[in-house]
């Protein structure tokens, strides 16, 4: 799996640029890419006849791979994982006292992963550091053969489109996105996982991603870090900053978009 096109970051802001360690970014990319290769292998081994079995195997085996690598190579760091359990996992408290926490989603978009031919699913790996926030991250899109990371620049296209394209859930577009569609004459683009949607914004395939109605920190940490590192807008849908490694990992809504669309989108989704 190779990196998505982009040059080394030269002045583009990151979530915490003064603390970004190249070794941490490289490790995040290696983890995300390695888990992605494993997920492709599992797809090939099990096929698509039993969607539930494929989802379960993918989630668990990718999570074991990621937790094993972090434990072996960053033994002093804590982990917040969708599939984690206990002190180092999603319901534990150890991470709240840690200075470094890896926030991971071993398989973002299990539904899409279990559907033959779909490539809109992802692996998320992000590093949170106390006092700094998100400092390193990578998002692998294994079926697309790319990994996007915080030490690469994915520039905002110069020309703002007359008809913005907004990525939304395949099954439940939020009312906020529908309001933005009406207010801005936008086009709603159904798409799979949260990571795939945010990376579609970063790649310029769409202009925004509006989500409301429920997510957790692992759904957005790595994609948000990648977006912020190249200067894209990423906040809550009320404009508040996104905060990570909180005691409650529930982070229900998200807006990622071109910076020049942030103000009109925030106004539209908040009924102004």
From TrEMBL:
Keyword terms of this UniProt record: Magnesium, Metal-binding
Superkingdom per UniProt: Bacteria
Keyword Magnesium: yes
Catalytic activity: adenosine 3',5'-bisphosphate + H2O = AMP + phosphate
Molecular function terms from GO: 3'(2'),5'-bisphosphate nucleotidase activity; metal ion binding
Keyword DNA repair in record: no
PROSITE patterns linked to this entry: IMP_1
Pfam families recorded: Inositol_P
One GO process term, biological-process aspect: 3'-phosphoadenosine 5'-phosphosulfate metabolic process
Positions of Mg(2+) binding: 82, 105, 107-108, 219
Cofactor list: Mg(2+)
The name this protein goes by in its record: 3'(2'),5-bisphosphonucleoside 3'(2')-phosphohydrolase
